[in-house]
Amino acid sequence: MTPDNLIPALRDIVGAANVLTDDDCAEYESDWRQRVRGKALCVVRPGCTADVAAVVRACAQAGVSIVPQGGNTGLVEGSVPDASGEQVIMSLRRMQTVRAIDAANMTMTVDAGGVLQSLQDVASEAGMLFPLSLGAEGSCTIGGNLATNAGGTQVLRYGNARELCLGLEVVLADGQVWENLQGLRKDNTGYDLRNLFIGSEGTLGIITAATLRLYPQPAAQLTAWAAVPSLQAATALLALSHRHLSAALTGFEVMSQEGLRLVDTHYPHLRVPMWRETMWCVLLEASDSESEAHARAQFEHLLETAMEDGIVTDAIIAENIRQAHDLWHIRESITLAQAAEGPNIKHDVSVPISRIPEFVAQTDARLQALAPGLRLINFGHLGDGNLHYNVQPPAGADGAAFVAAHEAAIGDAVYQSVHHFGGSISAEHGIGALKRDHLPHYKAPVALQLMQTIKQALDPQCLLNPGRVLERRPGQMAR
Fold it and tell me: What is the CATH number of domain 220-420?
């Protein structure tokens, strides 16, 4: 097999209609943020695991590297090809079969191309809950969610994608298939291979199926919106919420005034509550196993206590599902409002919750000194210490020019501050190509060495998503 006859071989495997070339590849070649555009040799769309394995074997024989792609909603440039025109994009979107639902085991086994929202609906129709939830759930795929260890809004209660996965099926770099879809909660027979592939961003193997953990549907789910005077007050409210709600607390999101201002500007029909009177707002969600009355009583007592303590200045509790949806829609619209405002600089970081107020105060001041007038759009999952610490250019500035001139210095300043406060430069988005060159500055050398050793062992030709997460080493020369 040579690169010149690879495309005909791929057509023989998946059918001519499922091998795209030239202009038909365009929608797969750019990332969601439109930051980068690559050029693919072709896009191949397998329909089953056997197809994936055969495609990988053909590419390995030809020495051609593969870029796995799900919904292509990632934010770190991890699922688009380079500019060489010599990489194959493997899109798993056709693989959407729900293979099995095991009600007694409370699991669901699905193909990797299943859209997250569709899988939520399938679980709901079976009377159960699949709790992974994030803004791109209408288009992201479960394979991509697992490959990046996606987080989302309910990590506080249910954990990241890693905690919601009990088994995987993975095609390795030589085309072998590792199948481990039994859905066991206990399996202490050696190294934890499943968790090795989760979060590896397609660099160690291609996830083709997963067995997912399901939960009972809650008897009631309530949402509240609270105005807080400071981030210190928000962290105090989080601690109080843990004491009052315990495991019933499923979501705790914080939003800065500037972020909500953008939503109000670009989406005034959403009617953002309270943002003008306070610097921060918090969105809380509680799931109750007893009844809505019980949940509401707990929520009301929590908020009354918080107001008496001075950590909440105003609050509302959604009266129905529609109102709850509207409040969550405001939170999820911050990213869209930033895009509507123009080019911006994104950071997905985690910091110990207790240190977040100090981190934000010090980093805000540092960035304002670096580029006076910039707008800080801070929001995210305070409940698990994950902030989307984003930067919007000054009002009226040329956004593209500002980003080009300041992104590198701002990124360095943010990551240095994150490191100083004992945090991580990537909480839930991954490393991809965007943060790859930053990683050696903030990851221990021994950790990087171990990661390189694993990559070399599982993908010695560096055929799987090369240049993502880790730099190529001498001898790892894939096309």
Answer: 3.30.70.2190
